[in-house]
Design a protein that fits this description.
Blueprint (H helix, E strand, L loop, with lengths): L11 H28 L4 H8 L3 H8 L1 H4 L9
Helix pairs in contact: 2-3
């Protein structure tokens, strides 16, 4: 994980790289948790509620996980 140097370095490039790294980490964590939720039988509505987005937005972003066979099949 990126260290906190990006918050105090006078060079904005350092801070921006830290922001990018955090965004990439957050995206990976979200993907893993959505996969886990689907494997446990969560509906797209439950996932959407937990993420604070619409069911359609959650499915649009993560629905491809099912096509790769990583999660439970079927859309509810």
């Amino acid at each position: 994980m990126a260290d906190m140097a990006g918050t105090t370095d006078p060079d904005p490039a350092v801070g921006l790289r830290a922001v990018r790294a955090l965004g990439e980490l957050a995206a990976r964590l979200e993907r893993l948790q959505v996969e886990r939720a689907r494997e446990l039988g969560w509906s797209w509505q439950q996932i959407a509620d937990a993420l604070g987005v619409s069911r359609q937005a959650a499915h649009k972003k993560h629905g491809g996980l099912e096509r790769r066979g990583s999660a439970r099949q079927g859309e509810d």
